[in-house]
């Protein structure tokens, strides 16, 4: 390897053997960065995809908040009726059932149908790409926090209006809050 | 090998402009004030700089316009910015067109305006603004218009091409690796291209750090997630190339000639470690994210900001100061530590019984002691016993002095270091003026150093004046003792000539007849002296 520092006689300035090796190495490094960049970009698109799913849930809640109180509401399991017995579990099943408004939402990280999780858990990889729906319950005045946040349980009654927070879990299983909607 | 001077690299200045300013036409005066690159302190450099900034801002605007969430609410402002940019670029184009007959590149032509219009740079300038005017007459698709506006990047060639030419000339006959070294490290061969490289890296540092900060804002990250990913990959790509170039060419630096140890030595320097830390999170997260949650490494991307320390001398001065004053600082830190431990122990002793939940143990008491000593006083832990309160009073009073010591040491040492460096600058100025002339390169070095030492223009001029005075005093032989003149053969020759000249003057002015008569009568002159006297008259 040429180790003479500077002050060499006139040179063509073109890359020599070791320079070419270096350029090859540099090209490999650039290739590596580009490859990781592409992977990150694809992962980013997966996150975008689950965000769109979350937004779809949000849109559904927003658009059906008033409709579901009407007597002839099409999704009977989600209808809000006085003295009704509709539960969240039944409603959810009706929504994701084949032909339901939320049918076909796929978790792009695992290529499986998007599942509902209690919460995004960074220690639980299975919650990556999952949907998290939490109910927001106002607490009495003077409470330490104004609103209590808890996961919606299957048995929770939905015959009255609910304030729902929609979140999705990213590739690290950290929550991305989509928004809060009335349903 | 010595690099060609800037005068050799660039074309010779137009001497026709050195005529009396009163005799110059308005166009000549305007060219000299605005565009002549050979005149120092005119507006040429600031104009180039601000046009360059506007081009970069245009590129950023173009990128942001593609994000609907940003573009839609601020479409009006984007349009205003576009109009503003086009107005500036049009003014620039028309000014260059008007002043073309004064530009030495076009003035020899029979039709300088036409020659300018046909020149590559003018075509680029026209392409940068043409799409804007085009849409006024022809309905152009917005996406096509944005694509055409990308042509504004070409305007950067106005800066890049001359810098590249200068670099090629300065590095003629040098090896490929030496050229890389000249590009990435400050040297006499780097020229403007090296400055552009530095500015490019600094710009990317700022962009990537701003991106990292904004990424933490959930609302922004929600909208720009993909853009941040692309930006980070681009930044890492650029910084990785920079790091490789620096390590590979470091063997050209003095004291780093060995192909392996030299490069390792370079890799172990603080700036190189910072460079490595700036890119490592990206690679570690990509390869190890399945094994470990390495998201915390993302915060380390903010270390990229430290890369900017390479371009400022102040941090170097500060590190010199810290190293120099380290024993005193360490001593002061030791006293502080001693005081904290002692007072925390006493606090624990006096307060534990009264408040066992707050002064549960000595570590908890240390927290109270530090908060009190630093005059922060959160108030979450406070003493209730008389002795504990007395301790707090003593601690608070001591804290004022103890914390002031390192600050005072650093501040005085920093001032001292600046004084030392200014003295060094003064000394090098004396050396520069050794030949009585301040060359262009010396002047540039002086301005660079003055900027680093935060000296104003007036202070620099004062320093130059002082150095000139000292130089003149040094070369004023009349007031100098003879032994000092004799010690310097060059001065001795000058002095001899001076004495001889005075003797000749004496021979011309005095009455030679009377002189000879007195000298002969009173035998005042020896034969040898008489001979010299006669020779002086011949």
Helix-strand layout with pairing:
The complex is a heterodimer of chains A (183) and B (538).
Chain A: H1 17-64, H2 88-96, E1 106-107, E2 112-113, E3 116-117, E4 131-138, E5 147-151, E6 163-169, E7 175-182
Parallel strand pairs in A: 3-4
Antiparallel strand pairs in A: 1-2, 4-5, 4-6, 6-7
Chain B: H1 6-9, H2 26-34, H3 44-65, H4 68-71, H5 75-99, H6 112-118, H7 120-137, H8 142-149, H9 157-170, H10 176-184, H11 191-215, H12 218-249, H13 261-267, H14 270-288, H15 313-324, H16 326-351, H17 362-373, H18 386-432, H19 440-452, H20 457-474, H21 482-487, H22 489-509, H23 512-521, H24 527-537
Helix pairs in contact in B: 3-5, 5-7, 9-11, 10-12, 11-12, 12-13, 12-14, 15-18, 16-17, 16-18, 18-19, 18-20
Features:
heterodimer, A: 183 residues, alpha+beta, five-stranded mixed sheet, 2 helices, disordered N terminus, B: 538 residues, mainly alpha, Four Helix Bundle (Hemerythrin (Met), subunit A), Helix Hairpins, 4 domains, flat
Describe the protein in words:
The complex is a heterodimer of chains A (183) and B (538). Chain A has 183 residues and is α+β, with helices and mostly antiparallel strands. Chain A has helices spanning 17-64, 88-96, and strands spanning 106-107, 112-113, 116-117, 131-138, 147-151, 163-169, 175-182. In chain A, strands 3, 4, 5, 6 and 7 form a 5-stranded mixed sheet that branches. Chain B has 4 domains: 1-165, Voltage-gated potassium channels. Chain C (Four Helix Bundle (Hemerythrin (Met), subunit A), Up-down Bundle), CATH 1.20.120.350; 171-311, Four Helix Bundle (Hemerythrin (Met), subunit A); 312-475, Orthogonal Bundle (Helix Hairpins), CATH 1.10.287.70; 482-537, no CATH class. Chain B is built from 24 helices and no strands. Chain B has helices at residues 6-9, 26-34, 44-65, 68-71, 75-99, 112-118, 120-137, 142-149, 157-170, 176-184, 191-215, 218-249, 261-267, 270-288, 313-324, 326-351, 362-373, 386-432, 440-452, 457-474, 482-487, 489-509, 512-521, 527-537. Chain B starts with 5 loop residues before the first helix and ends with a helix. Chain A binds chain B through residues 1-11, 13-16, 19, 22, 25-26, 29-30, 33-34, 36-37, 39-41, 43-45, 47-48, 51, 122, 172, 174, 176-177, and chain B through 1, 171-179, 181, 218, 222, 225-226, 229-230, 232-234, 236-237, 240-241, 244-245, 248, 251-254, 256-259, 262, 282-283, 286, 293, 295.
């Amino acid at each position: 390897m040429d180790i003479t520092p500077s002050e060499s006689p006139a040179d063509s300035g073109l890359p020599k053997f070791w320079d070419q090796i270096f350029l090859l190495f540099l090209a490999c490094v650039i290739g590596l960065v580009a490859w990781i960049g592409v992977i990150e970009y694809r992962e980013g698109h997966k996150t975008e995809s689950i965000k769109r799913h979350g937004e779809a849930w949000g849109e559904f809640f927003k658009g059906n908040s008033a409709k579901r109180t009407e007597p002839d509401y099409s999704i009977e399991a989600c209808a809000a009726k006085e003295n009704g017995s509709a539960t969240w579990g039944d409603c959810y099943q009706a929504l994701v059932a084949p032909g339901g408004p939320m049918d076909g939402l796929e978790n792009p990280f695992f290529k499986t149908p998007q599942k509902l999780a209690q919460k995004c858990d960074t220690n639980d990889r299975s919650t990556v790409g999952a949907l998290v729906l939490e109910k927001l319950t106002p607490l009495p005045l003077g409470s330490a926090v104004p609103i209590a946040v808890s996961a919606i349980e299957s048995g929770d009654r939905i015959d009255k209006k609910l304030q729902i927070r929609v979140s999705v879990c990213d590739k690290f299983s950290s929550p991305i809050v989509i928004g809060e909607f009335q349903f | 090998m010595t690099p060609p001077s800037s005068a050799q690299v660039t074309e010779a200045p137009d001497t026709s402009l050195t005529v009396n300013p009163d005799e110059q036409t308005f166009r000549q005066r305007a060219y000299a004030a605005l565009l002549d690159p050979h005149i120092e302190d005119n507006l040429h450099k600031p104009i180039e700089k601000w046009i360059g900034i506007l081009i970069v801002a245009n590129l950023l605007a173009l990128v942001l316009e593609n994000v609907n969430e940003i573009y839609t609410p601020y479409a009006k402002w984007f349009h205003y910015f576009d109009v503003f940019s086009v107005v500036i670029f049009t003014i620039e184009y028309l000014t260059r067109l008007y002043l073309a007959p004064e530009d030495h590149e076009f003035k020899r032509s029979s039709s300088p305006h036409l020659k300018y219009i046909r020149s590559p740079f003018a075509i680029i300038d026209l392409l940068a603004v043409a799409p804007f005017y085009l849409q006024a007459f022809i309905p152009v698709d917005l996406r096509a218009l944005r694509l055409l506006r990308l042509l504004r990047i070409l305007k950067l060639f106005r800066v890049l091409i001359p810098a590249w030419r200068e670099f090629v000339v300065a590095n003629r006959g040098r090896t490929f690796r030496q050229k890389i070294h000249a590009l990435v490290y400050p040297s006499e061969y780097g020229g403007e291209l090296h400055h552009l490289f530095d500015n490019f890296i600094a710009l990317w540092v700022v962009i990537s750090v701003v991106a990292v900060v904004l990424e933490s804002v959930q609302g922004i990250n929600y909208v720009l997630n993909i853009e941040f990913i692309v930006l980070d990959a681009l930044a890492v790509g650029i910084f990785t190339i920079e790091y490789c170039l620096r390590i590979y060419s470091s063997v050209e630096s003095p004291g780093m000639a060995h192909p392996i140890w030299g490069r390792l030595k370079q890799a172990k320097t603080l700036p190189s470690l910072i460079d490595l830390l700036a890119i490592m999170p990206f690679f570690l997260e990509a390869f190890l994210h399945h094994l470990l949650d390495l998201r915390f490494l993302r915060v380390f991307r903010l270390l990229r900001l430290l890369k900017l320390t390479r371009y400022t001398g102040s941090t170097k001065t500060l590190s010199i100061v810290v190293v120099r004053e380290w024993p005193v600082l360490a001593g002061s830190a030791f006293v502080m530590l001693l005081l904290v431990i002692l007072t925390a122990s006493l606090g624990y002793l006096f307060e534990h019984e009264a408040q066992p939940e707050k002064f549960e143990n000595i570590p908890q008491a240390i927290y109270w002691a530090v908060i009190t000593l630093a005059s922060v006083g959160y108030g979450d832990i406070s003493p209730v016993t008389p002795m504990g309160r007395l301790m707090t009073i003593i601690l608070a009073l001591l804290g004022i002095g103890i914390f002031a010591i390192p600050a005072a040491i650093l501040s005085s040492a920093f001032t001292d270091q600046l004084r030392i460096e200014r003295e060094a600058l003064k000394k090098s100025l004396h050396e520069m003026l050794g030949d009585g002339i301040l060359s262009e390169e010396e002047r540039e070095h002086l301005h660079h150093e003055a900027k680093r030492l935060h000296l104003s223009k007036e202070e620099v001029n004062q320093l130059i004046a002082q150095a000139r005075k000292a130089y003149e005093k040094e070369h004023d032989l009349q007031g100098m003792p003879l032994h000092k003149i004799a010690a310097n053969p060059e001065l001795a020759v000058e002095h001899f000539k001076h004495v001889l000249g005075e003797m000749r003057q004496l021979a011309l002015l005095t009455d030679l007849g009377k002189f000879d008569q007195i000298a002969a009568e009173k035998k005042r002159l020896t034969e040898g002296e008489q001979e010299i006297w006669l020779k002086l008259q011949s």
